[in-house]
Automatic annotation (TrEMBL), chain A:
The keyword Cell cycle belongs to this UniProt entry's keyword annotation: no
Alphabetized UniProt keyword annotations: Membrane, Transmembrane, Transmembrane helix
Lineage of origin: Bacteria, Bacillati, Bacillota, Bacilli, Bacillales
Keyword Transmembrane helix: yes
Protein name per UniProt: ABC-2 type transport system permease protein
Chain segments annotated as transmembrane: 12-34, 54-74, 109-135, 147-168, 175-201, 221-242
Domain of life: Bacteria
Species per Swiss-Prot/TrEMBL record: Pseudogracilibacillus auburnensis
From TrEMBL, chain B:
Name of the protein in question: ABC-2 type transport system ATP-binding protein
Protein family: Belongs to the ABC transporter superfamily.
Tagged with keyword Nucleotide-binding: yes
Species this protein is from: Pseudogracilibacillus auburnensis
Residues spanning the signal sequence: none
Top-level taxonomic group: Bacteria
SMART domains xrefs: AAA (SM00382)
Automatic annotation (TrEMBL), chain C:
Residue stretches spanning the membrane: 21-48, 68-88, 109-131, 151-171, 178-196, 226-247
Keyword Cell inner membrane appears in the UniProt entry: no
Name of the protein: ABC-2 family transporter
Stretches of the chain forming a coiled coil according to its record: none
Swiss-Prot/TrEMBL keywords: Membrane, Transmembrane, Transmembrane helix
Organism: Pseudogracilibacillus auburnensis
Amino acid sequence: MRAFNAELSKLFSLPGIWLAFLIGAFAPAIIATLDSMAEKEDIIAGASTRLSEVGYIGLGLGVQGIIILGVLAVSSEYLTESSESGGGNQITTSLTVISSRFHFLLAKAGAVTVISVFLSIVAIITTVSATNLILGEYAPAFEASKLIGAVCYWTFTALLAFGITILTKSGIIPLAVLMINSSVVTVSYLLTKVTKLAFYLPDMAGLDMFMFTSDRFHTPFTGGLIMFAWVAVLFIVAAIVFHRRDVAS
Amino acid sequence: MLTINNLVKHRGTQEILSGISFTARPGRVTGFLGPNGAGKSSTLRILLGLDRATSGSALIDGKPFAELHNPLATVGAALDGFGAHRMRTGRAHLRWIARAAGLSRSRVEEVLEIVGLTHAAGKRVGNYSLGMGRRLGMAAALLGDPKILVLDEPVNGLDPEGIRWIRTFLRERATSGKTVLLSSHLMGELAETVDDVVIIHHGKVVADGTLEEVISNHSTLEEAFFALTSESAGGVV
Amino acid sequence: MSVSSSRKITQILDAELDKLVTLPVIWLTLISTFIINLALTIAFTSAALQWGAGTQSILKTGLASMGYLQAGFIILGILATCSEYTGGQIRTTLTTIPWRGVQLFTKHMALAIMTIPVAFIIAASGVLYAFMMMRDTAVAIEIDKLIKTLVGVTGYLTLTTILSAAIGAFLRRTTSALMVLLSYYFVVSPLVRDFLPSSKNYFPDTAGSSMYMLPSSDEINVLTPMQGTGVLLLWTLLFIIVAIAFYRKRDA
């Protein structure tokens, strides 16, 4: 528990985390607002085909903030870009404070999970209120099951980012891969055009938890399960690698 | 000849240097002392054109660093830390510096030899020990065979052999008419190396003179240092 | 004086090139960009072959991965400038080359010199693959159009790299620069394009894309390639100037 508190305070003292918060908590609302305004006429006329998606698009993109959170949580331990540091790896300090590496990882993952859940709830509240504000009575009903799906999607994504960064130790690769892949047209989506197997990629499966589009492949529950399986496998691999690796290398 | 003239530096609302003046003369080793946070590194950084002074000047042979025609051949500097990208090899690091100053590749091998780093020149800087990093910094400082050396904590992290090497090396440089300015807080070590001493405390010069003058009626340099900097004992770690 | 200062610039340029070439991360980025781009092109090509054999343009398919490919060059640009701040190398740089404006500008030049051939090779490799796979089915390819497009792509990627480098120099932290640039290129920009189609001509990436975009039937390309180049070039110069202005003023 103390380790968990330490990890939380470490996260909150990172300046980059505030960008993650900003993107995570408000970008979805802004996107939902813009999207609602663009769709408003169609929706009122009853001609919109995208009514069920309004709002959720923002939640799908706001996940960028959560990616930053997951990546920073790990990469900050290794970052050495201060001009005065002759190799200031915080990880060395962290592991002398908490000697069990497994506990260290668990505490960190716990902190990331708690913040992601919190952030996704904030994002949902802002998004739902923005949509309601603009569309008024025409606003789509937000079903609880979908919203839970969105929370799960955000949390799992944060943990995926976290796990990948443990393996790479640098934030560059996970940031690039995950941020590009959660952009408007994702690589995974394109791959689904090539092979059906791509539907089993974590983000495609995870999106099925709350994005009910016509080309949906999984039920929300199996989608969530597949994404969770990815997270679990990645975590086991990351834990093993992290356990065996020399800190300095 | 290094001339620091009434140097003031503010960072935010904090006053880091409040009017520092001293000179480092050719043919002498000048020791620059002070507790942690006294402003030693800030002074050296301003001298090397890395930081900007709020007011005052730090001149090298009468010119600010950025106006030197050939900086590497005028001033050799080794500041705290490695000063090199972790993923580059030591040799590659020295080579790009040499290239920027128009020096030959054989000069790189020469300085590697001088600082005793030839065997590790092909290793990535990230794998260097603290002492090897200091040696790499010294090698970079010596590349241009400069008239002036500015060294921040040069013996920090060096093994006994390295410390002795630095001591004799710096003495030789001074004897051959070159200027050496080094900061340190290892009193015993410094007392054996320097001719002149400047002590700063809270951004102000509290003592400036030859080693004998600064020690004056204290028994050692260390005694003198504590007598001069301890009026606010406990305030500085 | 002028002779010696021009020699000095060459020396600095050499040193900056040396820095880039001896940094393993740079090579890693370039090689993975090449491989990933080729893999994506293979995916796009097979998708194109499955659906509309015979109607697909080789150029379009070969360059379909551009949106992702630019990410590799954004990373390249950021790494080139932010690597100065790893291990305090910036202090060595500035004590060796204290003329800050010249130094940073030369760094961008060195980066451009390195990027141009690489961007060309990577873009051409994608088109070449698409050509080999589709030459039997697709419409014939005109050689002058091909060269024009490849030159456009190379120019676009190079300018994007330089622009990213300038932003990297301004922000000084790899992660921050990466977050800012990737979220602009992959989230903000596509959204702005959807919601405010008219702004398309003014942003560096959308305007720049007209450097290589083929005039297509479904949308009107308002900018000519030259105009697109101009807009992107202006943005790039603006960021370089801002980066240099800050670089000269602040404490290293």
